[in-house]
Input
Amino acid sequence: MKLKRGRIITLVLFFTFLVSFLTACGGEDINETDTVEAVPSAVEEMSTVGENTEIAFVAEEKPNQNSSEEDTWLVMLYQDADDETLERDILIDLNEAEMVGSTENVSIVSQVDRLDGGYDGDGDWTTTKRFYITQDTSGDLETITSEELEDLGEIDMGDYNTLVDFGTWAIQNYPANHYVLILSDHGMGWLGGWSDDDPNESSEMGLDQIDEALSSIIDQTGIGQFDIIGFDACLMGQLEVFSALAPYAKYAVASEETEPAL
Output
């Protein structure tokens, strides 16, 4: 009887405390200034298409200093197509982005570097160009119709400073509430990737340099975090990669497997 009475007293005290706590809180909703914390290593979502599994992780969320009532997005495409195998595929990816195009609330910008001696379509230019992606409903996946913003000449896309320059340029010129960075090229998992032999032979970004580039972009722009970082590259769905990205992005998406062709 004592044990049963003790349980009843404990429950009464617990619910009294709970009611008092909720009354004190007043049922307030979480507002925009509240910080949401999540476990960096927790698996948020898994999706499988055929044999190719993509994994997304959620990291600790930091406040976006550009937050406002209007939801605006900037999508940045860092497209290292200075490669005989990937040049045409990445240009088709860019044309696929044109099927959607930028809108009033979503700006899509690209920096794409082409190869001299690879795919000869769409004018066969070989330099590095920046585009503001606009919609093209023609269905043509071989011709870029978006606005060319700048021709940078031959740029080393395997140099992490080039990534820093692109990221800071895009964010400063197209400020938004949310930021997405997609990096396209060959990936090697924890070793990194993003090689570019022209103009510097055997140039590539290691994971430590990608880490440094992301940190520098955030420091120079004050955005707090990227909303999403995505790797359009092989083998980047590794724990070491997601661990490196955790301080810089709320979500990251990458493939465990190779990404053959388109």
In short: The mean pLDDT is 82.
